[in-house]
Design brief:
Order of helices and strands: HHEEEHEHEHEHEHEHEHEEEHEH
Low-confidence stretches: 81-118
Mean pLDDT: 76
Strand order of the largest sheet: 9-8-7-12-10-13-11
Distance between the termini: 108 Å
Oligomer: single chain
Shape: extended
Helix content: 25-40%
Length: 368
C-alpha cells in the first residue's frame, strides 16, 4: 500500500553534505596559544597587585599612551593606582589594605534622538514681554537677560533693560534663531529672562497670610491640571479677581514652568502659589479653618449663580482637563456647583471655568 510521502508539506530526507574544505593554514594563528598566564602580582587589575612590581611591557605602553593623551587634553591621566578604580583597563582594584573602590554612579541612558530631561533645580528661561517685566518688578532673582537682535523697543522692553542694568543682570544680545533654540520654539516676543526654579509658598504660610487679609479669604485649588498653559491662565484669573493664593498637588499636576509663567502674564510673581503633598488632606485642613470648599462640576447639584457662600471664606476647586474632579476630592467638597450653559456646549475648559466662577464670586462680594 503506497504511503503518503507525496502529500503536500511532507518532510523529505536530503543528501548529506560532504567533507568541509580546510582553511589552508590561514587560521593557524588563531589556534596557537597566547602564551603563559601572568601571575597575580604582575597584573595591575588583580587584587594581588601591590604596585611595586614591574609593569608588563604591553601595560606600560598603554599607560604611557594614556599619559600623553591626558597631557595633550590638559587633564589627569586615567591610570589605575592601588586602592582606586583602574579606568585604563576597565576593572576595579583593591589596595594593599584590601579596601574596595567606590562605584561610580551609573550614567543616565537616553533614547537616540532625545535629550535628557533637565534636573528639577535647573534654571528656567522665562519668555514674553509681560512675564519678564513683571518678574523683574517683583524682584525675582535673575541671572541673564536675552534680547533678540533687531527687537522692537517698546515701553516694556525699555523698562526691562533699565531694571536689569540697575541690578547688574547680564544683558546678552542673541539671534532670533538662537533664542528659538533656547526656548524650544515657544513664542518669546524677542526676549527671555533666565531665572532660578520657582519658589513655592509653604501651604501653612499661605493660609496664615490669607487669614490676615481685610476681605474674606479666597483660594483656588487645582485637582490634576496637567497643562501648564491652563495653570498659568488660572493663576492670571485668580490674581485678577482678588484670590489670595493657588495650590495644587506635587504629583500628576503641572508646575510653574516657563510656559506657565508666560500664560500667567506675570501674575505668578504677585500671587502666593503652593504645592501640597495630598490635595484631599489640604482641603480638609482648609475646612477646619472655616473655609467652604466649592468644587466646579458639570453635574453639580447647585447653581453657581445661587452660591450664597461666595461672600465667606471659600476654596474653589477646579478639576482636570479631561475627567474633572477626582472621586476623593469630589467627596471632600462641601458643595459641587455647575455653571449654567447652553445645551449645545457640554463643558468648559478648566481655566475658563475657573475664570467664570471667580468672576461671579467677585461680583457677589462687590455687592456686599
Amino acid at each position: 500500500m503506497p504511503g503518503n510521502s507525496q502529500r503536500r508539506g511532507a518532510r523529505r530526507a536530503t543528501s548529506k553534505k560532504g567533507a568541509q574544505a580546510g582553511s589552508g593554514g590561514k587560521n593557524r594563528q588563531s589556534l596557537s596559544g597566547r602564551g603563559r598566564t601572568l601571575p597575580a602580582d604582575e597584573r595591575p587589575w588583580h587584587k594581588g597587585y601591590s604596585g611595586t612590581e614591574e609593569v608588563p611591557r604591553r601595560t606600560a605602553w598603554k599607560q604611557e599612551k594614556e599619559k600623553r593623551a591626558a597631557a595633550a587634553e590638559g587633564r589627569a591621566p586615567k591610570i589605575g593606582k592601588p586602592g582606586t578604580k583602574d579606568t585604563t583597563f576597565g576593572r576595579g582594584t583593591k589596595g594593599v589594605a584590601g579596601a574596595k573602590p567606590a562605584r561610580s554612579a551609573p550614567a543616565t541612558r537616553v533614547a537616540p534622538g532625545r535629550r535628557a530631561a533637565p534636573p528639577k533645580d535647573a534654571p528656567e528661561l522665562l519668555v514674553g514681554r509681560n512675564p519678564v517685566v513683571e518678574a523683574l518688578r517683583a524682584h525675582i532673582p535673575s541671572t541673564a537677560l536675552y534680547l533678540a537682535k533687531g527687537i522692537e523697543l517698546d515701553e516694556r522692553v525699555r523698562e526691562t533693560v533699565r531694571i536689569a542694568g540697575n541690578r547688574g543682570i547680564a544683558i546678552l544680545e542673541v539671534s532670533r534663531a538662537e533664542l528659538d533654540r533656547m526656548t524650544g520654539g515657544v513664542l518669546h516676543q524677542g526676549i527671555g529672562l533666565q531665572v532660578p526654579p520657582f519658589a513655592y509658598e509653604p501651604f501653612g504660610d499661605m493660609l496664615a497670610a490669607a487669614a490676615e487679609q481685610p476681605t474674606a479669604p479666597l483660594l483656588v485649588a487645582l485637582d490634576g491640571v496637567t497643562d501648564p498653559r491652563n495653570l498659568g491662565a488660572v493663576v492670571r484669573s485668580a490674581a485678577a479677581f482678588g484670590a489670595h493664593g493657588v495650590f495644587f498637588p506635587e504629583r500628576r499636576a503641572a508646575g510653574i514652568t516657563a510656559t506657565a509663567w508666560r500664560a500667567s502674564a506675570g501674575a505668578a510673581a504677585r500671587l502666593p502659589i503652593a504645592k501640597v503633598t495630598n490635595l484631599t488632606r489640604a482641603l480638609k485642613e482648609c475646612q477646619e479653618q472655616g473655609y467652604v470648599v466649592v468644587g466646579l462640576d458639570a453635574d453639580g447639584e447647585a447653581d453657581l449663580y445661587d452660591l450664597l457662600a461666595a461672600v465667606d471664606a471659600v476654596v474653589v476647586v477646579v478639576g482636570s482637563e479631561g475627567r474633572g474632579l477626582s472621586r476623593l476630592v469630589g467627596q471632600t467638597c462641601d458643595l459641587r456647583v455647575s455653571i449654567p450653559m447652553a445645551s449645545a456646549v457640554e463643558s468648559l475648559n478648566a481655566s475658563v471655568a475657573a475664570s467664570v466662577a471667580l468672576a461671579e464670586i467677585a461680583r457677589r462680594r462687590a455687592r456686599t
